[in-house]
Amino acid sequence: MLVNKIGEKNKMKYKKVYLDNSATTIMHPEVIKEMQKYFYKIYGNPSSLHNFGKNAKIAIEKAREEVAVLLNANPSEIFFTGSGTESNNIAIFGIVNNVCGKQIHVITSKIEHHSVLNSIKHIEKCGHEVTYLDVDKHGIISVEDLKKNIKNNTLLVSIMHANNEVGSLQSIDKIAIEIKKINNKREQKIYLHSDSVQTAGKIPIDVKRIGVDLLSLSAHKFNGPKGVGVLYIKNGTHISPMFFGGHHEKGIRPGTENVPAIVGLAKAFKIANNNLQKDKIYISHLREKLKTGIINTISEVTINGDEKTTIYNILNVSFNHVEGEALLLMLDMKGIAVSTGSACASETISPSHVLSAMQIDPVVIHGTIRFSFGHYNTNKDIDYVLGVLHTIVEKLRSMSPTFNKKSRNI
Predict the structure, then answer these.
(1) 29-274: what fold?
(2) H or E element: which one contains 38?
(3) Which of 1, 183, 261, 386 lies 20 to 30 Å (CA to CA) from residue 230?
(4) From the candidates 344, 383, 386, 400, which is the catalytic residue?
């Protein structure tokens, strides 16, 4: 009992700061409120013909219309899924499997999320050809390089909108323009898919303006519930289902729909889009404050990614002569949550494939931390982080055989 009381006392000393919003976000109170009645009042199966089912179906179709408006799409182009990962898988395998018996070529980048990379690696194992595009030191692909790699049998290009580790933003609209030019001269259409999980709810997404055929997003990245995502499929884009069962989501994603989560997704997406500009200004300020504070108080740090071409809520920092995992754990002991990269790869000890593709020294990569900001972070959060980060880095460097203590200017 005494041990528990001491533990509780020690916990009280530390402020809780969550700077891992690219992994997941807290649900907005209005989203929780909106979802509640679909657990115990409107709980019917949307496929049932009675009123309980009809009311649930109405809720889904209303959510579909709301998401369509926010993406400038048609409701018939919006498909609800179980996650961003599932959306990516359905998009990739759906396009590839639709051309049975043909050997095709797929283009992607070396810095994609594992749900894209691992799907495409599986396609490659099945005998199809894949081109993995290089990125520059800021994590940006070359549109010209992409054009040069298009072949007669190229069927799919899958390029993420913003990278989940460093935040690098790709010019999807420019890629779409080039693909459209090529499509005008050939019979076999090239489809463009973009994983927009990290941009949805943070920057405006207009699928008609961007020019994609398929686009993925996930609710829990913009203060919505976990376990629900969206796949936009442009009308006229034919894909084969990965799963088989009933008629749900036009057979693309069969299985009884998660009505509360779908309603929550639409509500969260609406709230996020209503606050895009305000949040951008506020979160950009927090990011800049932390970045400036780190640079001014800690020597031998590198900010990964060019601020002009990265999304505003991610700050990826490499601390020389520090082990990133040790830094993460010591920050966690102070109540601060951060990441060493993608949450989906956090259990692996291999260096970040994103930073490796950006040609960053492997030794430096291992000292990298991702800070990702959200709607509920405050200036006091940043002050607290800066107040403890310097001390922790100093402590870890004092144990590092590679750190020249005489060179410190902290």
Answers:
(1) Aspartate Aminotransferase; domain 2 (3.40.640)
(2) helix 29-40
(3) 183
(4) 344
